[in-house]
Amino acid sequence: MGKGKKEIPSALRHGVYSAMAVLSGEDQAAFEQYRREIIAEYNLSGRSEEELGDYLARLMWRRQNLSTYRIAEHARKRHGEIYAECRPPSRLPDFSGYFDEPETRSEEELCALREQANEQAQTELGAALELVEAGDVATTDYLLEELSIIERLGHMIDRCLKQLLFVKGLKSISSPSATTVATPRIPKLVQVISPDCNK
Question: What is d(CA 85, CA 80) in angstroms, rounded to the nearest whole number?
């Protein structure tokens, strides 16, 4: 990509944009089956119920697959070690306040070292390399942050649903069909008047 163009973050490029998503190395088909089983178990129907079932399935899936985060952590650590071996140019100040020594290798040498590091990372890490490319998304910190946001949204949705049910309840009470109450029929009393009673 040329300079000036914004590069799409690797997490978005690879479709991993949520800690609640099925992460790299996890079985998407197994999750879909799991989700269907949850929806069937609780007999969920309609958009709102299925959305709650989907959220429940994702929470339970994450709990069952916490090992993915450990794999991601190990992969990130090893990935960093592999690339540290190629020692890319550094301009960070050292503890004495002076800059590290300037890079003396040519751009071609550095490109060759990076290519070598890429190949080594691919060989060693395999599919786990996608977890590295997902960045912060494949971390427990990101998961906790996302769950915190989801919880706040959940409270807001709950409050909105309660208000909606309250308004619908009021409408049902004040609707014309609810106020029209059938008057109970009182049977007519047939007065049997004896001829002697009028006298």
Answer: 9
